[in-house]
Every structure is written in structure tokens, then in C-alpha cells.
């Protein structure tokens, strides 16, 4: 089966490392070196490639920026490849090229497959490519939340499916409870709002405004207020157009136009142009007659009734009272009335809504209790298998009598503190259920199981973490594992067993270990030495592959602090031979 492999990294101006290339083995690679040589920078570099936080303090003193480049061979159908291609990245001979640059001022840039990408994308790819474990991860394993996550990850769909159902019901319950709380706590405010709306609607209903009525009344008031002047003007205009019967000598526009038309009609047959003008004069005569008729009708129909004017002004005053309160115009007042009626219906229905929400909340509480219990049952079943698997792994890590158990319990809370009845008890419920998960370790027979935070030494904690990761490798494999001093606090036979177990893990995954123990390094397929020299002004670190005599010398240094000690050399050769034999 083809799997992803981190082939190499190039590190420039990062911490104590000036410029180094780290060539990694597909199997088990051990990174060794003296304290302060920069071994941890290997872990830090990979963390940066996978979207870790950029700290400008990591940039080498005097350098403008630090650069980490990595090459990861990946199968073409890997999820990481599909996600990278969506971002526009391209593979280079079946490998993803990743680059991360950190400036001394704190700016950070990321590139993937030749394309600039957000740093967050590298973090998304990390979940599918590499599991990084360092001292901080060991401390993280002490937190109950991390222990619950570890159990859920191991359980897979057995927990993921009920957890998804539980989470959906939990979110809905939170939303219902929030709406119900708002409705009940704001009851007085809503009652006041409803009273104001009713008053306004009653006031509008009493006036009964019509759409556009204010505009119509304004025009009518203007006309009634100037009725005499309008009538006089219309009469004078009519006389000018149609003549005044009381003045036989008078000349009107209609008579003049008619005379002009008759003059042209006498000769129109001789010139089409003049005939066209005669036609237009005829049209003008007809139009003048129409206008004169309408002016006569306008003058006759014009109402100069002062009582009507008073009624119009009174109606306008009533409408003005409404527009001062509810809108700039009658149309706006009517719109406010429509919206307020809908809002009042909503407010009046709050009591019904409160009843509906209360019923839904109670039903969801019962449903959530059942889902929480199902989730607890699934975790309990998985916990037994998980604990047994980790216990078996510890037996392979020189802890043959250790026993791991997992306690699953719920924290009881007062009902008025947000508790919900689950199994007859009010318990605290969260988005992930009601369970608190805690890993317990009994390191030897007769010892009571205690939380690993209290019952495990540094070496035991390292081995528990390694055992947990090995168990994960069997159920939820990750292509590459990087351990930073997972052997901390371990020595002697236990260190040999840790090395042997890492070698076994490397049969199905790539394993990179930063270690100070020769017993662990001896089991590696490849050993890298991080070494530094000091020229008096600048410290430079390099990384080189150790083979043959060089590897024996480094193991001798790790054993006795003396590369040329014959005893140490013999012991180093014995370790290498034993490691080769056991693998």
C-alpha cells in the first residue's frame, strides 16, 4: 500500500540552524545530537510546514527571515492532494512541495505546490499527513478534554454517529431555550409595546385615511381657496377664444382662425404646401373650440363653497395628526399600520409561542437525555477496548504489570444551574455530551488506579502517550509520526522497549523521533546527527546522515559522553546488533 512519506526538509536561518537539509527515511529515523545543537528545531520546522504559529523570535539573529521547505511524497488519491489541488497547487513528480517563510518583523507566508496559500490550509493538510507529539502534547494528554477526544477518535463511528445526533439536538435545545428565555424575561416590555401599537392602530382606524388622500385634499384646498380668481380667469379665457355674446363687435380667436382658414381654402388647390397649412388651421380651430368648451364647463362646475373648504381643512388637520406620529405621508401611515398590525399579531401570539417552545424544550430535554445516554454507552464500550489495547501496548514498553482503565462519569449540577435530568440525575451537558473522561493508571499490582496526571512519572507518561499513539495507528493511521523526546524520563530496559515499539510502528508508518537515548536511536533505520560548530561569532548547525563508524561513534557519545571509549563502542555495537536482530 502506497503511503505518504516526508522525504526531506531544508531549514535556513531558523534558531541555531544556518542552513541544513534533513533527509528522512520512509521507516524509522532518529534525530540525535548534543543538547542545544538544534534537534528540536527539526520538530519546530515541521510544525511550521504544517501551519504552526510563526514566532519571529525563531528567526536566526542577523537574518531577515527564516525559511523551511519540505517535500512530501503522497499518493495521487490522498485527501491532502485533492485539497491541495483545489487550492491550485501542483504535484512535483508525485510530491507536494511546501514552503513557509517567517520574517524578522513577524510576517508569515506559505506556499504549496508553487502556489501562495493561506497558512490555515497547511493546518488542514496536517490532519491527513503528520501526527506531531512533543513535550507539550504529553501535558495536553493530562487534560480531560484531550482524553475524551482521544477516546472518541479511537471509537470512530461508534461514537461519532450518536455524537452527531446529540450535537444537533443540543444546538436546537440551546436555540429554543434562548428564544424562550427572551420571551419570558421581556414580557413586560412586549406588553408595553403591544399597548402602544394598539393605541396607534385605533387612532388610525378612527380617521380611516385613504391612500393618497392627503395629496388629493391639498389640491382641493388650493383650488377652493382661489375659486373666485380661477373662475374669473376661466371666463376671460373663454371669451378670448369663443367671444362674448354681450359684445357683438368683439373679435375672438376662433373667429380669426376661421377667417384665416377660409382665405387659404380659396386657393389651396394651386399649392399642396398651402393646402397643408390650411389643414393645420382647421385642426387649430377644432382644438380652440374644445378648449373653449372645457373652460366654460370648468367655470360652471367650480365650487366656491366655503363650507366645503372648511371641511377639507378639517380633514387635512386630522391627517396631519397622523403623519406627525406615524409617517411623512398618508401612504407611510398606512404602511406603518400594516406592519404594526402584523407585529401586534406576533406579540399577541407570544403566549401561544411560549407554550409551544416550552413543550418543545421539554421534548428536546427528554430526547437529549436519551441521546446522551446512548453516547455514554458507546464511550463506555469503546473505553474498555481502548484501555485494554493501551494496557497491552504498555506490556511491550517494559510496563508488564501496568493497567490502564478509563473512568467515565458525569458532573452533577443543581437544576437551577442549567442541569438536565439524565438517568434520574441533573448533570452538566455540553456540546460533546455529559461525559468526563479520565485515563487512570495502576503502574504495578496492588497500586490503586490514579489519574495519569498524578499517578504517572515522566517516563511512564511518555510510554502511555506512545502506547496511545500506537493504538491509534491500528484504528486511525497517520502516514507520518514525529515524536520529540517521547523517551523523556525513560532509561535502561524501558528505553530498549520504547525503541523496539517505535521500530514496530515504523513498519506501517513513517516515524521520526528526536531522542537523547542510544537504546532508542539504535533501532532506527536512519540516524541523523544535528551538530554545531562555533567560530567565535556565529553558530551554525548542520544535519548529516550517520552510517557505519560514524553511527557507532555517535551512539558511544550518547552512552558515555566519549566517542572513542572502547567500552562505549562495544556497547554501541552491541545495541545496533541487538536492534537489527529484534527487528
The CATH superfamily of the domain at 1-134 and 485-494 and 507-583 is known as P-loop containing nucleotide triphosphate hydrolases
Looking at how many chains there are and whether they match, the oligomeric state comes to single chain
The percent of residues in helical segments reads 55-70%
What would CATH call the class of the domain at 1-134 and 485-494 and 507-583?
Answer: Alpha Beta
Number of helical stretches of at least 4 residues? 20
Instruction: Supply the helix-strand structural class.
Output: alpha+beta
Strand order of the largest sheet: 2-1-4-5-6-7
Mean pLDDT: 82
Ranges where pLDDT stays below 50 over 5 or more residues in a row are: none
- General form: elongated
Query: What is the CATH architecture assignment of the domain at 1-134 and 485-494 and 507-583?
Result: 3-Layer(aba) Sandwich
Indicate the topology.
Elements: E1 5-14, E2 17-23, E3 28-32, H1 39-49, E4 65-73, H2 79-86, E5 95-103, E6 108-112, E7 115-117, H3 119-129, E8 130-133, H4 135-140, H5 144-155, H6 157-185, H7 187-207, H8 213-225, H9 227-242, H10 253-265, H11 272-301, H12 306-326, H13 330-348, H14 350-395, E9 403-409, E10 420-422, E11 425-427, E12 436-442, E13 450-451, H15 452-455, H16 458-475, E14 480-484, H17 492-505, E15 510-514, H18 518-521, E16 526-534, E17 539-546, H19 548-560, H20 566-582
Parallel strand pairs: 3-15, 3-16, 8-14, 14-15
Antiparallel strand pairs: 1-2, 1-4, 4-5, 5-6, 6-7, 9-12, 10-11, 12-13, 16-17
Amino acid at each position: 500500500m502506497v503511503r505518504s512519506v516526508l522525504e526531506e526538509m531544508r531549514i535556513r536561518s531558523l534558531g541555531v540552524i544556518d542552513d541544513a537539509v534533513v533527509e528522512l527515511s520512509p521507516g524509522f529515523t532518529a534525530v540525535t545530537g548534543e543538547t542545544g545543537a538544534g534537534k528540536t528545531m527539526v520538530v519546530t520546522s515541521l510544525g511550521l510546514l504544517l501551519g504552526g504559529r510563526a514566532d519571529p523570535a525563531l528567526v536566526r539573529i542577523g537574518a531577515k527571515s527564516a525559511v523551511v521547505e519540505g517535500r512530501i511524497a503522497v499518493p495521487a488519491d490522498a485527501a491532502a492532494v485533492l485539497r491541495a489541488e483545489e487550492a491550485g497547487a501542483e504535484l512535483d513528480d508525485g510530491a507536494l512541495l511546501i514552503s513557509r517563510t517567517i520574517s524578522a518583523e513577524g510576517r508569515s507566508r506559505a506556499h504549496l505546490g508553487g502556489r501562495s496559500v493561506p497558512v490555515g490550509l497547511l493546518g488542514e493538510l496536517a490532519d491527513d499527513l503528520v501526527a506531531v507529539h512533543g513535550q507539550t502534547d504529553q501535558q495536553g494528554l493530562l487534560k480531560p478534554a484531550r482524553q475524551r477526544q482521544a477516546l472518541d477518535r479511537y471509537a470512530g463511528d461508534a461514537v461519532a454517529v450518536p455524537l452527531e445526533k446529540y450535537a444537533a439536538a443540543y444546538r436546537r435545545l440551546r436555540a429554543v431555550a434562548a428564544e424562550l428565555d427572551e420571551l419570558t424575561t421581556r414580557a413586560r416590555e412586549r406588553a408595553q409595546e403591544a399597548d402602544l401599537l394598539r393605541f396607534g392602530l385605533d387612532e388610525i382606524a378612527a380617521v380611516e385615511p385613504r391612500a393618497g388622500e392627503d395629496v388629493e385634499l391639498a389640491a382641493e384646498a388650493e383650488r377652493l381657496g382661489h375659486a373666485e380668481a380661477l373662475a374669473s380667469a376661466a371666463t376671460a379665457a373663454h371669451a378670448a377664444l369663443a367671444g362674448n355674446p354681450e359684445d357683438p363687435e368683439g373679435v375672438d380667436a376662433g373667429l380669426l382662425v376661421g377667417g384665416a382658414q377660409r382665405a387659404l381654402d380659396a386657393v389651396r388647390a394651386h399649392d399642396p404646401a398651402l393646402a397643408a397649412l390650411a389643414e393645420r388651421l382647421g385642426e387649430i380651430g377644432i382644438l380652440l373650440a374644445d378648449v373653449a368648451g372645457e373652460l366654460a364647463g370648468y367655470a360652471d362646475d367650480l365650487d366656491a363653497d366655503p363650507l366645503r373648504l372648511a371641511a377639507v381643512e378639517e380633514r387635512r388637520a386630522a391627517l396631519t395628526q397622523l403623519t406627525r406620529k406615524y409617517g411623512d405621508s398618508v401612504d407611510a401611515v398606512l404602511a406603518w399600520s400594516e406592519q404594526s398590525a402584523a407585529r401586534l399579531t406576533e406579540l399577541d401570539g407570544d403566549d401561544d409561542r411560549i407554550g409551544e417552545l416550552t413543550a418543545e424544550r421539554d421534548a428536546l430535554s427528554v430526547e437529549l437525555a436519551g441521546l446522551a445516554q446512548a453516547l455514554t454507552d458507546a464511550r463506555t464500550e469503546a473505553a474498555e477496548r481502548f484501555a485494554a489495547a493501551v494496557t497491552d501496548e504498555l506490556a511491550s514498553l517494559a510496563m508488564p504489570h501496568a493497567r490502564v482503565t478509563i473512568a467515565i462519569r458525569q458532573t452533577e449540577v443543581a437544576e437551577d444551574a442549567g442541569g438536565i435530568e439524565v438517568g434520574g440525575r441533573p448533570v452538566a451537558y455540553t456540546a460533546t455530551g455529559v461525559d468526563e473522561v479520565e485515563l487512570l493508571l495502576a503502574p504495578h499490582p496492588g497500586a490503586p488506579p490514579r489519574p495519569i496526571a498524578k499517578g504517572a512519572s515522566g517516563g511512564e507518561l511518555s510510554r502511555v502517550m506512545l502506547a496511545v499513539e500506537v493504538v491509534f495507528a491500528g484504528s486511525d493511521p497517520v502516514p507520518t509520526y514525529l515524536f520529540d523526546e517521547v523517551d523523556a524520563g525513560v532509561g535502561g530496559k524501558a528505553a530498549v522497549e520504547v525503541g523496539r515499539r517505535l521500530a514496530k510502528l515504523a513498519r506501517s508508518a513513517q516515524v521520526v523521533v528526536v531522542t537523547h537515548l542510544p537504546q532508542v536511536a539504535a533501532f532506527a533505520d536512519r540516524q541523523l546527527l544535528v551538530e554545531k560548530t562555533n567560530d567565535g561569532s556565529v553558530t551554525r548547525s548542520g544535519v548529516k546522515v550517520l552510517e557505519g563508524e560514524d553511527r557507532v561513534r555517535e551512539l558511544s557519545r550518547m552512552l558515555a559522553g566519549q566517542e572513542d571509549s572502547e567500552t562505549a563502542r562495544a556497547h554501541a555495537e552491541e545495541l545496533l546488533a541487538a536492534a537489527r536482530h529484534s527487528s
